[in-house]
Amino acid sequence: MTELCKEGAWAVGLASISEVSGNVLEVFYPSPTLGLHGAPNELIRAAGHDVSSGTVEIHGHHAAELGAAELGAAARTDDLRGVRTVCVLTVIEDCSAPPADAYDAYLRLQLSSHRLAPPGTLNFDGVFGTLANVVWTDAGACDVEGFTQTRMRFMASGRSLQVRSVDKFPRMTDYVVPDGIRIADADRVRLGAHLARGTTVMHEGFVNFNAGTLGESMVEGRISAGVCVGAGSDIGGGASLMGTLSGGGTEQISVGEGCLIGANAGIGISLGDNCIVEAGLYVTAGTIVTSSDGKQRKARELNGASGILFRRNSMTGAVEAIERGGDWGELNPDLHDN
Ligand SMILES: CC(C)(COP(=O)(O)OP(=O)(O)OC[C@H]1O[C@@H](n2cnc3c(N)ncnc32)[C@H](O)[C@@H]1OP(=O)(O)O)[C@@H](O)C(=O)NCCC(=O)NCCS
Fold it and tell me: Does the keyword Acyltransferase apply (predicted)?
């Protein structure tokens, strides 16, 4: 089980606050820092704030002193959207404690997408309760409450308004574009995803928050929240990686290095290194598998094992777990030189 990070974190950000409900709709932190070294406590205390943890609104000139002058310039009231944007400083005392509010949650999501904390190392317990449901438009975040009036204000000013989604999480690329990756469809990667260099996410791929890859990988299937995929692994088209050990468990699953999850396959147990799951086979924790020696057991007993080929015997219908050596051809390097 991955250990939670007990470090703190801080960042200067630009928060969008609804004038209708007062909800924090989203917060953009361009340069989050993990660890409280260099936290600008002195400066902020001098401005009369206490920032040992939590969020304070800061003036544009303070944002400039903290290296984020553009955020100060971006702070304004947007009457069309009914949103006020303000500069904030957010400090998290301990990332192993659950997120306290939307500011805290947005900072954790961006720490993850900036690759400062791998999946499973930041506490996201209760994150849904901290986030507002938001109408994500091509003009920015809008409150769900009163959205018809918002649309009419846009119409009255001769502008159209396109809705991309209505969700608690925005897409990652509107906040962070990590280097060395490709994403065919930006809507399929949520803020909080962790994509290592050399990751390619194809159109059918999906990566949730607090989930992702640790090295070069091909993602054509779905990576659920909390799931970590090791370097050199390929998640085939339409494949699905369950969030937790299937059958009511809370243990989060992972995929080791050099694995191939075939097209339309799925797993509800963790895989070690160099495993293959045959195309179309879904291995849940309770699936009875037959090993090469003829022994039958539940797949959960092979949780985390390396060098296994899972396949459904097309003659007998039995699911087999066959020990294997060698490789499956490995990733095509041309596709990961991003
Ligand atoms: C499971 C898988 C890896 C096996 O592929 P392989 O290692 O190349 O194996 P082969 O198909 O050459 O089969 C080897 C032997 O096992 C047998 N075999 C393979 N799958 C079998 C099955 N499900 N049931 C019974 N026998 C099987 C073959 O008939 C063959 O027998 P032989 O040695 O007597 O000729 C492959 O079928 C697979 O599912 N790959 C996933 C590819 C994929 O989806 N990629 C992602 C794209 S988006």
Answer: yes
